[in-house]
Amino acid sequence: MLSTPRIDDHRIERRARMGWLACAKLSVLLCLAGCRSEETIVRVGTNSAMSGEEVAARIRQTYDSRFFELEERFQSHYTVRIFRATGDTTNLDVVGRDIGRRLEGFLATIDSVNHVRDVEYAGQKEVSNMPRLTETQRSRRELFSENPEFLLHRRILFTAYKINDYGLHEGVLRVPYVRACEHLATVDWASFLLDSEVIRPYAAQTTNMVFWLKQIGVVDLEEPYTLVFKGFFMRSNDEDFSAADYQAKLYGLTHFIIGESQYYQRPVSPEKFAWILDYFDEHILEILTWSKPDIIAEIALCFRLCGLDDHRAVGHAKQFLINAFDPKLGFIPSGGSTVDFNTSEHRNAVAYLVLYDWKELHRGPHLRDGMLAMTPSIRARLDLMETGEESASLLVDRGLAKILHPIDDDGRALPEPEPAHH
């Protein structure tokens, strides 16, 4: 195990000038000259009396008891993570409803991908609605202004991956799934995903896309993508990155291991990703100081997925999450000025996977066709596809705001945009 590097006052001062703020409730006392990891004192919050198992149980109790307060997409995300950690099949019907909710836009998009002007218009329309308040948002807007068609390709890819992941690609959704894969195979993914300027503001998402493409058998870009990622993010000192790029680096690194696990479905080889685990180990105290609970939980989960439950990084992260837990709320808030139960779901689902003492992961869930919530119009469209008939309605006729739902790092749909921005 690598020893903990010394973090000196000048580096902390430089990061403070860059506007890097420590997460709420975090106070780290770092020994400076010749400090070793076992001599470092990490103090976070006031919940030291609670164990990780107790916090996991409270998070589970809170989200189970308030489950129907969650929006449907968050219900689905939470249910799948709980299933993969525990095998609990409760509420799997919401996963079928979530896929059903995506089908109208997905099928209309599949009908329209050969109409170049529709694809360009759809992409440009979504770009115009992309937010631009933060550095990351502005970088992503600029990125997709130059590549608007990839917003549509990404959306097709995500839904095709979900259909495959839930075992629905051999059932009633077989034809649209095959057509989606055929379309995705025509896309020049290498030119997009192997560009460091694409990866820089979008690292977690591009890493996800590499693993989605590999899982559904369209193209395997993992090796060249890893080389480009390393070339940009691993050859520079972290102090040389902006705050946004540093956070993107951490998220991107976690998603190599999370993607390899097929998103918490199978264990991962620690040897394959030693370069990532070694980096996290070496820099864990800095990460604890400057990162938010979501990233810290994902980093701890990477070690657990690699079978390294007793690694010191896991212990530090667990203590951080325990002390970020708010007993009054019953979950881990963002640390910001507002508390949103829905948007806190991802953070708490991942924290649960870290703190709950699972011994094995459960593959799936594998859904049956009957679990899909499909409207008569969707069934009619599927029948047309099955018989080889094309639908006459194009993407622009279906209403772009309804079809183009932005998705986040884990592919979860984000709230629909306002007419002028989101």
Give an account of the 3D structure.
The chain has one domain (52-403). It is an all-alpha fold and 422 residues long. α14 (274-290) runs antiparallel to α15. The chain contains 20 helices and two strands. Strands 1-2 form a two-stranded antiparallel sheet. The N and C termini lie far apart (45 Å). The model is unreliable at 1-44 and 391-422 (pLDDT under 50). Helix content is 56%, strand content 2%.
What is the gist of this entry?
This protein is mainly α and 422 residues long.
Key attributes of the depicted protein:
mainly alpha, 20 helices, 2 strands, 422 residues, disordered C terminus, two-stranded antiparallel sheet, disordered N terminus, single chain
Write the layout of secondary structure elements.
Layout lengths: L8 H9 L8 E4 L11 E4 L7 H14 L6 H15 L6 H20 L3 H13 L6 H12 L2 H17 L8 H12 L3 H5 L2 H4 L3 H13 L6 H12 L9 H18 L13 H17 L2 H13 L6 H13 L20 H11 L20 H12 L7 H4 L1 H4 L19
Antiparallel strand pairs: 1-2
